Amino acid sequence: MVYDFERPIIELEEKIAELQRFAREKDIDLSNEIENLEKRARELKQTIYGQLSPWQKVLIARHPERPNTLDYANMLCTDFIELHGDRCFGDDPAIVGGIARFRGRAVTVIGHLKGHDTKENLARNFGMAHPEGYRKALRLMQQAEKFNRPVLAFIDTPGAYPGMGAEERGQAHAIACCIAGMLILRVPVISVILGEGGSGGALALASGDRILMQEHAIFSVISPEAYATILWKDATRCRDAAEVMKITAQDLYAHQLVDEVIPEPLGGAHRDKNEAARLVGEAIARHLEELLGCSTEELIKRRHARFRRIAPEYLPGNNIT
Amino acid sequence: MLDIFKKQRQRYATVNPASREIPDGLWVKCPRCHEIRFTGELGKQLKVCAKCGYHFRLTAGERLKITIDEGTFTEWDRDMMPVNPFGYTEYDEKLARAHRETGLNEAVVTGEGKIGGHRAAVAVMDTRFMMASMGTVVGEKITRAIERAREKQLPLVIFAASGGARMQEGVLSLMQMAKTCAALSAFSEAGLLYISVLTDPTTGGVSASFAFLGDIILAEPGALIGFAGPRVIEQTIRQKLPEGFQRAEFLRQHGFIDAVVPRPQLKSTLAQIIDLHRSE
């Protein structure tokens, strides 16, 4: 899948491939021409991906080939074993979890799961979880606490699912308990926003010690489409909404709402999954090291202080006492 | 932190908080049974329709009046003004209008008072103020109320009502969910009582945070309670929701709230619960 703004790059890459084929078939040396074109492609990528608009970032964050939670679980960890079910109602395919080894250490991995194609997405409900998903996440976090394993939480969801079953089974209660449970967990929790971090359904897995965001990920109170519909009664203004909402990793980092922006390979994580995983792994390892150096009491104290600071008196220009 | 928020914020003057309450001598129609009544009569019945029992929404002032013993209420953080972190003009205008129409500075009133003789910390959300959506200041006032209740060792009663997180403050609003939950965890650890009263409507970021973390969760009859609003659900599933879906009685049936308490019994029920939790 290629977006309009990526087309010049793709066209150039196709041209390079064609030249290479031609050179091989006719056995002529075109290495200079090819090298020139490759250089141009690199520059073009840097220009295009270096100045993506917020809406273009939304598109990259939602790219179907973007590596998802299970991809990262398998690329970052060894021995990943998926664990299912909330022990109350069912198993939600939109949130996965399990145990694995990350750089030698046993960890619990949880995260929303989007599919890479329509069929997978239908099976995963597009990463929109039901209450049983949040209850499974909470169960696995509490299990992690028992065995003193750090928790790695991956966020990639448009939001919690707004359906009848979800409401009947207490969506609001499940999310509230997941947030509250994560806040008091006696082991380090690192949340990484991989793609879309949409509303309370995302925050449910992002109430830990650190919130890291991939370079082209977004984190928002509501989707740009819904924002435009509600505030301007016009869903087609989603581009404008993305502009004003401050949802990019760069905006949120500038506002100190997230702790680190994890760089992605040029063009986005889907263009080089292994490199993307390496960068994510390095960031997690660094933060985990710091957190493991903290006593449990200190850990929880700092975690609470982190959210306590999101207060009006920290916004300059306010003299609230 | 947050240099981007440097924009000068408009301050608002305080006007009479009673200005939006229904003036005496007007006729109101019950939205459920369509019975037309004199508001004077309604007032005597705590704004409950005498014919069908419909509970009209209350303003924060009205709620405090029927809940707190006369003359015992002290308001906290009354002067805390809303913030406009991203500097949207439209948002400034909306805040100004909400202030003009309600006399409130923000969508929640917090403080301390007595309920049937028992001291308690109280927070009341007022849906007239931007649908009582939770932004930075609403989250802050609720957090401070929880913290003060803990310092003073008081039981806490929150009357929730909200359309959800306040969109105009973006992720800052979302983070208030975690902030209030963190304050509640410290409160709970101190062994103190939190009664959450869900009133019409309690949805979105408020229902999915402090509102559903009460030790005891009560609701008023007919209150709409849920995560997603009914319109969003109907658009998603492309069908109409059945009668009574997401109403207080439905939630009680499904096991998510402890009791549905009609407004005339609410104050005495709160007093009774608080009394049962007295330590001496």
Automatic annotation (TrEMBL), chain A:
Q: Where does this protein have coiled-coil stretches?
A: 20-47
Q: Which residues cross the membrane?
A: none
Location comes to: Cytoplasm
Its family?
Answer: Belongs to the AccA family.
| Chief subcellular location | cytoplasm
InterPro entries tied to this protein: Acetyl_CoA_COase_a_su (IPR001095), ClpP/crotonase-like_dom_sf (IPR029045), COA_CT_C (IPR011763)
The reply on keyword Lipid biosynthesis is: yes
What domain of life is recorded for the organism? Bacteria
Q: Which SUPFAM superfamilies match?
A: ClpP/crotonase
In Swiss-Prot or TrEMBL terms, this protein is called Acetyl-coenzyme A carboxylase carboxyl transferase subunit alpha
- GO BP terms: fatty acid biosynthetic process; malonyl-CoA biosynthetic process
Q: According to its UniProt entry, what is the function of this protein?
A: Component of the acetyl coenzyme A carboxylase (ACC) complex. First, biotin carboxylase catalyzes the carboxylation of biotin on its carrier protein (BCCP) and then the CO(2) group is transferred by the carboxyltransferase to acetyl-CoA to form malonyl-CoA.
The organism's lineage is:
Bacteria, Bacillati, Bacillota, Clostridia, Eubacteriales
Print the keywords alphabetically. Answer: ATP-binding, Coiled coil, Cytoplasm, Fatty acid biosynthesis, Fatty acid metabolism, Lipid biosynthesis, Lipid metabolism, Nucleotide-binding, Transferase
Quote the catalytic activity from the record.
N(6)-carboxybiotinyl-L-lysyl-[protein] + acetyl-CoA = N(6)-biotinyl-L-lysyl-[protein] + malonyl-CoA
| Keyword check for Cytoplasm | yes
Q: Please give the organism.
A: Desulfofundulus thermosubterraneus DSM 16057
According to the record's subunit comment, the protein's assembly and interactions are: Acetyl-CoA carboxylase is a heterohexamer composed of biotin carboxyl carrier protein (AccB), biotin carboxylase (AccC) and two subunits each of ACCase subunit alpha (AccA) and ACCase subunit beta (AccD).
UniProtKB/TrEMBL annotation, chain B:
Record field: catalytic activity? N(6)-carboxybiotinyl-L-lysyl-[protein] + acetyl-CoA = N(6)-biotinyl-L-lysyl-[protein] + malonyl-CoA
Q: Which cofactor does it need?
A: Zn(2+)
Alphabetic keyword roster = ATP-binding, Cytoplasm, Fatty acid biosynthesis, Fatty acid metabolism, Lipid biosynthesis, Lipid metabolism, Metal-binding, Nucleotide-binding, Transferase, Zinc, Zinc-finger
Question: Per its UniProt record, what InterPro entries does this chain match?
Answer: AcCoA_carboxyl_beta (IPR034733), Acetyl_CoA_COase_Trfase_b_su (IPR000438), ClpP/crotonase-like_dom_sf (IPR029045), COA_CT_N (IPR011762)
Query: Main localisation, per the record?
Result: cytoplasm
For the ligand (Zn(2+)), the binding residues are C30, C33, C49, C52
Q: Which residues form a coiled coil?
A: none
Q: What does the UniProt cofactor note say?
A: Binds 1 zinc ion per subunit.
Pfam families, alphabetized: Carboxyl_trans (PF01039)
Which family does the UniProt entry place this protein in? Belongs to the AccD/PCCB family.
Protein name, please? Acetyl-coenzyme A carboxylase carboxyl transferase subunit beta
Q: Which gene encodes it?
A: accD
